[in-house]
Write a structure and sequence with these properties.
Elements lengths: L1 E4 L17 H15 L5 H14 L2 H13 L1 H9 L1 H7 L10 E5 L4 E6 L8 H4 L9 H9 L1 H7 L9 E6 L5 E5 L11 H5 L4 H5 L12
Parallel strand pairs: 2-5, 3-4
Antiparallel strand pairs: 1-4
Helix pairs in contact: 3-4, 4-5, 7-8
């Protein structure tokens, strides 16, 4: 389901985490310790799961797809027409990414993804969801006043650029194909992928320019 909007103002917290553990982090650590102590969780298996999401499943997967779409018009067409099999072509898919739709940003239209009911998210493509994506303020205000939400992420769009909001569900999950930055004609796919952030594929950010990719 898509919503068309052009409004303003948001109060979710997307600041960088503090150096000390948050109360939630402490609770998770405590629960993990109890589960390990009672033998319900194998520490090695838990480490392997975390390592998988940190190194094998993550936003770098979606970034690879974006970079391929930027350099390969035929792949871009397949990705926009039927994203799930197109992603499988480059080894991306799995539980939570079975029914993907990719929507492309253009100078006329910017896309923003939200899940208003819970926090449906394409884990195999974008990795672990950010905390703010699951927060009630983001889930409600992204639909009501997306332009202000974007401004709070540091994204200021031209007044005449339409904003379209896509509502993910358990059956259908969205990813944004950001516009390719200027000045990237000589870059290969790996260098292009490095310019693509998780936020750019949710729509709360833009792809980095080569000068900003530090």
């Amino acid at each position: 389901m898509a919503h068309d909007h052009d409004h303003a103002d948001h109060d979710h917290d997307h600041s960088h985490p503090a150096s000390e553990l948050s109360p939630m982090d402490l609770r998770v650590r405590a629960l993990e310790s109890v589960l390990v102590e009672k033998g319900y969780v194998d520490p090695a298996a838990l480490d392997a799961l975390i390592e998988t999401y940190e190194t094998k499943v993550g936003p770098h997967n979606g970034a690879r797809a974006v970079a391929r779409a930027w350099v390969d018009p035929a792949f871009r067409a397949r990705l926009l027409a039927d994203a799930t099999p197109a992603l499988r072509e480059i080894g991306i898919g799995g539980r939570g990414g079975e029914h993907m739709v990719v929507v492309a940003n253009t100078p006329e239209e910017h896309n923003l993804v939200v899940c208003t009911l819970c926090s449906c998210y394409p884990w195999p493509v974008l990795g672990l969801p950010p905390v703010w994506y699951k927060s009630p303020p983001y889930r409600s205000r992204a639909v009501i006043e997306p332009r202000a939400v974007l401004a709070e992420f540091g994204v200021t769009l031209p007044a005449d650029q339409r904003i379209r909001v896509w509502d993910s569900t358990a059956e259908l999950r969205y990813m944004v194909l950001p516009m390719r930055p200027a000045g990237t004609d000589g870059l290969d796919e790996a260098a292009l992928a490095a310019l693509v952030t998780r936020d750019a594929m949710i729509g709360t950010g833009l792809a980095r320019t080569p000068e900003r990719n530090t």
